[in-house]
Fold this protein.
Amino acid sequence: MLLFRRSRLGARVRLRSRGLGRLFSSKHNSEARGLRLLRSWLSPEQRAQFDATRYFDAIGCDSGKRYRIHYGVSMNVNQIDAAGHPKVGCCFVPIGYLVAGDVMLAQKIALETNEFGALAVAHTFLPKDTPSDMGMFAHH
Amino acid sequence: MATQIVMDHTGDTRHYFDANDVRALREAEERFEELTGKGFTAAVRTAAGEVSRIRSFDPTNEETLFFPRLVGG
């Protein structure tokens, strides 16, 4: 009887594991598809930068400012200065649930073709590693 | 074969069509109008690797990418 219970429990756990495995596998496939699409639409320079660092830079078509798009789905875009330091964060994303590669590609295209339109809807935030952030909130 | 790529939760969905097929072309144009009407942005790539937005259907584009309307995150 105990053996029977154990085998039923084991079967249930295996089924659950398979279900989760499928879910993760499906999610993994979506992520992979998004990344493939992103890489295929990046310029050669952006692709090389992304492959090396998991971020790439895009130039705003309206202001000429440089933005750094990090791997992620939110709060992943920073306007950067000439030295590559983040100045301000810009959070804008396509509506709906999209994988990281898709979100990053939409952000790149928006900045390169309609920068002011993207910034008009964006929420700004203070990037984590700005000098002001580190200094202002330090407790002495 | 021309392609319309629509971003979605699966990564993307691709619609292939023969630009010489009148019916397929009409369906592709209707898809373009429907998506852009919903607020999707349509973009194409140039040979040099630059991207540009398009606001009307162009059957000569080999690949058109659509992404949903942007909102503040």
